[in-house]
Design goal:
Blueprint lengths: L1 H23 L17 H13 L2 H4 L16 E4 L2 E4 L16 H10 L14 H4 L4 H12 L20 H12 L13 H13 L3 H4 L17 E3 L2 E3 L14 H10 L1 E2 L3 E2 L6 H6 L5 H14 L2 H4 L3 H13 L10 H14 L17 H4 L4 H9 L21 H15 L8 H10 L11
Antiparallel strand pairs: 1-2, 3-4, 5-6
Helix pairs in contact: 1-7, 2-6, 4-6, 8-12, 10-12, 15-18, 17-19, 18-19
Main location: membrane
GO molecular function: electron transfer activity; heme binding; iron ion binding; oxidoreductase activity, acting on CH-OH group of donors
Subcellular location: Cell membrane
């Protein structure tokens, strides 16, 4: 009897193993000669350029360390809990890029996360979002990439350890648990603009890849869509009703932010988000950016949550108006804030002045941790990063960790109704440690 049970268990295990390898194994697709750029229509290449911009391809496929590298030639370093992963070369170089990939091989990579040679791709490449992109857009993207200059650059080797680096098992198992392939399907409950925005946001723009927290296996947490996540030491804030700012992200605020990099009531794009409006979404038709804003305004239920916005703005202006006058000037932390920050963040009117972000309305003060406030203090914001032509210097050299902690504590207690942050000086040191080199615009 025991032998029979053991035999059945072995048989089931073998059948399961065979079934899993049948699921995870893919054949190689034969290499092709690099297609001539003239074989693609100019319209297809132009449309593909928009798909590449909407998906921020150059952001993750261009090396930024070691002196930088050619656009789209890969070798961008992604530090993950599972080791360092270096992005692939997307130029049409036949040896180190995708020059010998057929369109069918490229589509398989986008749709299923499978390389031309049949190997499983790591989900650092967000194929779980790109699987939503329709065939025409993928074909146009292929035309665009194959029409770019070929660059011979071999990406560095990944440092993912055994056994995760055994892709057929590690990534195959990951996909079995978390990956649902398939193109985006319009939701009949919503209008065409909403569906266009959802298609772009969920698929090509893969917003959830940064704004949704991850589980222990690196997949986006089910049931926590758009709840916010930590990315490169910054917090990508929630894009839903859990966003804590006192003024709701309305459709118009979202559009201004995504199109121009600054929202009148929420401030400027900074850090990893800064290139999104300035380098990428600015290339898209305005109608597409408005569609994304329309979709996210529905996600965060802006229409039903914005009734208190006017009162919140009034309170923020009153708090800002006390920055430079009144009894708070006897507070040593207030005086430090006034000396370092007050001149540029003071607002006295009924609404914030363009170019003077009102901190009482900003995500940075209302998030659970001071990451973004510290990162902006340390990095600053360049003239091309936030609002055009307006810059904030880095205080990397001008403020100590203790100074930063004092300013953070002061702003949290005077600009919000939330409980104090803890371990502020320790967290300031941790934020400083994330900077590999001091910013070139650091103040002294």
């Amino acid at each position: 009897m025991l032998k029979r049970i053991a035999a059945i268990a072995v048989g089931l295990g073998a059948a399961g193993g065979i079934g899993f390898f049948a699921y995870a194994w893919y054949p190689a697709i034969a290499p092709v000669a690099r297609p001539a750029p003239s074989s693609f229509s100019p319209d297809a290449v132009k449309r593909g350029a928009l798909v590449a911009a909407g998906g921020y391809c150059a952001e993750c496929h261009t090396r930024t360390d070691n002196g930088g590298g050619p656009v789209m030639a890969g070798d961008y370093k992604m530090e993950t809990p599972f080791g360092d992963i270096f992005s692939s070369n997307l130029t049409p170089d036949p040896e180190t890029g995708i020059g010998n990939w057929s369109e069918a091989a490229f589509k398989r990579a986008m749709n299923l996360g499978i390389a031309r040679d049949g190997s499983q791709l790591y989900p650092a490449f967000p194929f779980d979002h790109f699987t939503k992109v329709n065939d025409q857009d993928v074909s146009d993207l292929y035309a665009y990439l194959m029409s770019q200059p070929a660059v011979h650059q071999e990406p560095r080797k990944n440092t993912v350890p055994f056994p995760i680096n055994i892709r057929i098992t590690g990534q195959g198992f990951w996909k079995l648990l978390f990956f649902k392939p398939g193109r985006y399907q319009n939701d009949p409950k919503h209008d065409a603009e909403w569906n266009r925005g959802a298609y772009l946001a969920i698929g090509d723009a893969h917003c959830g890849a940064c704004h949704t927290p991850r589980n222990l296996l690196g997949a986006e947490k089910s049931g926590s869509e758009y709840d916010g996540a930590v990315i490169d030491g910054w917090i990508a804030p929630p894009l839903n009703e859990h966003n804590p700012t006192p003024v709701v992200w309305t459709e118009e605020e979202l559009f201004q932010y995504l199109r121009f990099g600054v929202a009148p009531l929420h401030g400027s794009a900074a850090g990893p988000m800064s290139p999104v409006p300035h380098s990428f979404l600015s290339q898209l038709p305005e109608s597409d950016v408005r569609a994304i804003a329309h979709y996210y305004a529905d996600v965060d239920h802006a229409a039903t949550r914005s009734s208190g916005d006017a009162a919140a703005v009034t309170r923020a202006m009153q708090m800002s108006g006390r920055n430079l006058t009144g009894p708070q000037t006897q507070d040593a932390d207030a005086r430090l804030y006034q000396a370092a920050c007050g001149a540029c963040h003071y607002n006295s009117g009924p609404a914030p002045v363009s170019g003077r972000p009102e901190l009482a309305l900003n995500n940075a003060l209302w998030l659970d941790e001071p990451n973004n406030l510290y990162q902006v203090m340390l990095h600053g914001i360049g003239a091309k990063e936030g609002q055009d032509g307006i810059a904030m210097p880095s205080f990397y050299a001008g403020l100590t960790d203790h100074d930063m902690a004092r300013i953070a504590a002061y702003l949290r207690r005077t600009r919000t109704t939330l409980s104090p942050w803890t371990d502020l000086e320790k967290k300031a040191a941790q934020a400083r440690a994330t900077l590999k080199t001091p910013p070139i615009n650091a103040s002294h």
